[in-house]
Design brief:
7-stranded mixed beta sheet; 19% strand; 29% helix; Dimethylsulfoxide Reductase, domain 2; 767 residues; 6-stranded mixed β-barrel
């Protein structure tokens, strides 16, 4: 018996010999992790073909829900622009190259730069899509070990770092992140998040719109704080149109009200918190009356929101992208959790709870009980703090442009498109042209990989076995599901894990060893790290575990290791009915492991063993918030508008715009502008509008709307597919404009180093 054989429902063959299989797996194109059924026809001579993708009604988590992105998995599989083999840059353009020759060339160039200038002259960049693929997650770590450079970057500093820094400081680890118990709460307070469009983020909750509608149907209340009346705000009981950047001030004023009106009740967290008096002291200077003007929210509204939250029977607070990528992102997430803790909603049914994933990645985050590694080193040029072992993207271009001997000269990038996703995008593109060598792991010849010397394409999602290692850390239910490959590997391609392992092996000088032997070394290194955090620590030894794993190399046995040593695992026989990969594969629809449950204090990994309510790293940003409130919040005359971004159900950053099913309909890369502002400027819907920031400008069609508050304009990110040298035939026909040509790379959230992507001052004129 193999796991895959239990994950397909076989249909009878057609007269021509074509067979059809229905393969159950998880959609990997966003954070919702919806269960899908993929109908694949298999015919001799023509290979496998996707016939249909639909929601799986038997999936215990998504219960049949899917969004349009799930259907696009077939588009990605069939996309003629998707690369089917490695490419090498030549003087006349890109040409095919064999896999072994490509990996030899990559290792030769990287090791030459390392030997001449030091390992820090090689940079590594990891994009968001790696979170959705277990192969990339597990074997990128192997590349990081082979190239132990300080010059590491990821999309995290354009996305999640404020939440992870705050969670690490308060609870002891960035994966120790509580999520809303959305299915049992009576009052959900949403800050800078649009889960109806994003499908949830750092809150894995398939079918989130139905969950929110169910909340309201049972008499609950949904409140959304956002400068724009988003798709989520449109179904809410109340929309609070805050001024961009004012979230931290407003939320801390709500905390002030809790103390002032004796509404503080720690509930389950009582006895597990430190520095409560310090919190009271720092919010004493932030009454609603002080913050109201800067936030654009009346003081009495702030007071009412605090009282309603405190008095609701079961309440949760949730913030996401808009809360993160603003000037005070870490302060905002700190205030969100303070509101939950001080109203007794942490670790309580219907409030915020800590998931217990079946397979945990915590082993990669350091030793339990150690203080988070924030700021132990500084980036060489501007002195940005190292966060989670990486420099922020604000340091990326300058570290390439530097004249130091160990400046960045080479780049290895996986599943990332920083030319579209990073502020001051024109500077990023110029920096990439300065590199001596660049290798990219990507499906496409796109805006970033066009700068590469080598492009090494992975197999598409439907050709990969996988398990949601990262996203189930944030799931609103404890679930597990194995996703077998629905399609075979196309000729000319190889799984990404084997490519990453092959590069790492060569860079480490292990040419004489087979991939299988090197993978055995990887397993031998990971086992002790996983066992140390396992509930079976002290009951098993590493030798027993290695002997109990399959001998076939690759990610499957690593996933089996994580499952078997996890919170719901079989402990290699110690718990007969526990999880293993084999057992999980026998349940192709996935398994429910129960609702989230209270877990204090076991879920805490701070050195003190308590919740740190007042981390000094976070408090150090309060004087800057005070400066903003006392005058820096005023808008400049030259750039009087504040630019924000938006999410859409058919987009996922920049990487789905070449798929026909997701590019149907109206132009979605438009600038939303309030009707009052448009009338004053003589702008009508469809007019070309010039958006100018400190570092650049773009022209986009206007969309006059009352969804945004006056003084705010809204442009989605991830577009700008007009650059020469790319191979994106669908995206290039409706390229949109790159918002990051306007957004400055100089501004960051101080505690986390996250780039400020929302609330950016711009000027608006009719073009």
């Amino acid at each position: 018996m193999t796991p895959t054989s239990h994950s397909s429902l076989h249909r009878a063959a057609d007269p021509d010999g074509t067979t059809r299989d229905i393969v159950r797996r998880t959609c990997t194109l966003c954070e919702a992790t919806c269960g899908i059924r993929v109908t694949v026809s298999r015919a001799a001579g023509t290979g496998d073909r996707v016939e249909r993708i639909e929601g799986d009604p038997e999936d215990p988590f998504s219960r049949g829900h899917v969004c349009p992105k799930a259907h696009a998995l077939g588009d990605l599989q069939d996309d003629p622009d998707r690369l089917r083999g490695p490419l090498r840059r030549t003087a006349t353009g890109f040409e095919p190259i064999g896999w072994e020759e490509a990996l030899d060339l990559a290792a030769e160039r990287l090791t030459a730069i390392r030997d001449a200038h030091g390992v820090d002259a090689i940079a590594l960049y990891r994009g968001n899509p790696t979170i959705h693929d277990a192969q990339s997650l597990l074997y990128w770590n192997v590349v990081q070990r082979a190239i132990p450079t300080r010059s590491q970057f990821s999309a995290g500093s354009l996305d999640t770092w404020p939440r992870w820094v705050q969670a690490g400081l308060m609870y002891g680890g960035f994966l120790n992140t509580p999520v809303p118990d959305v299915d049992r709460c009576d009052h959900l307070f949403v800050v800078g998040a649009n889960p109806v469009a994003s499908n949830g983020s750092l809150m894995t909750a398939p079918g989130i719109k139905k969950r929110l509608e169910a909340l309201r149907a049972r008499g609950g209340r949904l409140v959304v704080v956002d400068p724009r009346r988003t798709e989520t705000a449109a179904i809410a009981d109340e929309h609070v149109p805050i001024r961009p950047g004012g979230d931290a001030a407003m939320l801390l004023a709500m905390v002030h009200v809790l103390f002032e009106e004796s509404l503080v009740d720690l509930g389950a967290a009582a006895g597990f918190v430190r520095d409560l008096p310090r919190v009271r002291e720092v919010v004493a200077s932030l009454p609603p009356e002080r913050v109201a003007l800067a936030c654009g929210v009346e003081a009495e509204t702030i007071r009412r929101l605090a009282r309603e939250l405190a008095r609701a029977p079961r309440a949760a607070v949730y913030g996401r992208m808009g809360a993160s990528v603003q000037r005070f992102g870490t302060l905002t997430h700190w205030a969100i959790d303070l509101l939950a803790i001080l109203t007794g909603r942490l670790d309580r049914e219907g409030g915020l709870l800590f998931p217990r994933p079946a397979a945990s990645l915590a082993f990669a985050g350091g030793r339990p009980g150690e203080a988070p590694a924030f700021g132990r080193e500084k980036s060489p040029v501007s002195g940005y703090d190292q966060i989670l072992g990486e420099w922020p993207m604000a340091a990326f271009s300058e570290e390439i442009e530097s004249e130091r001997e160990d400046r960045i000269r080479a780049l290895v990038v996986i599943a990332g498109n920083p030319v579209c996703s990073t502020p001051h995008a024109a500077r990023v593109a110029r920096a990439l042209d300065r590199l001596e060598f660049m290798v990219a792991f990507d499906y496409y010849l796109n805006e970033t990989t066009r700068h590469a010397d080598l492009i090494l394409p992975p197999t598409p999602p439907l050709s990969n076995d996988t398990y949601d290692l990262a996203l189930l850390h944030f799931a609103v239910e404890n679930v597990a599901k194995w996703s077998p490959a629905a399609m075979g590997v196309e000729p000319g391609l190889r799984p990404i894990w084997r490519t990453l392992l092959g590069l790492a092996k060569r860079v480490m000088g292990l040419h004489a060893l087979s991939d299988e032997q090197v993978d055995d070394l990887v397993v031998g290194q990971i086992v002790p790290l996983v066992l140390e955090r396992s509930p079976f620590a002290g009951k098993l030894d590493a030798t027993q575990i290695v002997e109990g794993l399959a001998k076939e190399p690759g990610p499957r046995r690593l996933i089996d290791l994580l499952l078997r040593l996890g919170a719901h695992g079989d402990g290699f026989g110690l718990v007969p009915d526990g999880l293993s990969l084999e057992r999980l594969a026998e349940c192709p629809q996935g398994v429910s492991l129960g609702r989230l449950e209270p877990s204090l204090p076991e879920c805490l990994e701070t050195p003190s063993g308590a919740i740190e309510l007042a981390p000094e790293r976070i408090l150090a940003d309060l004087p800057h918030l005070a400066e903003w409130l006392d005058g820096a919040s005023s808008v400049g005359v030259d750039r009087p508008f504040l630019l924000i971004g938006r999410r859409e159900i058919r987009s996922m950053n920049s990487w789905l715009h070449n798929l026909p099913s997701l590019m149907k309909g109206r132009d979605r890369c438009t600038l939303e502008i309030a009707s009052a502002d448009a009338a004053r400027l003589g702008i009508a819907t469809g007019d070309p509008v010039r958006i100018t920031g400190r570092v650049g400008e773009v022209v986009a069609p206007a969309e006059v709307s009352d969804r945004v508050r006056p003084g705010v304009v809204c442009l989605p990110h991830g577009w700008g597919h007009h650059l020469p040298g790319t191979m994106l035939s669908v995206a290039s026909k409706r390229p949109g404009v790159n918002a990051n040509l306007v957004i400055d790379d100089a501004g960051v959230d101080r505690p986390s180093g996250t780039s400020i992507l929302t609330g950016v001052p711009v000027s608006i004129t009719r073009a």
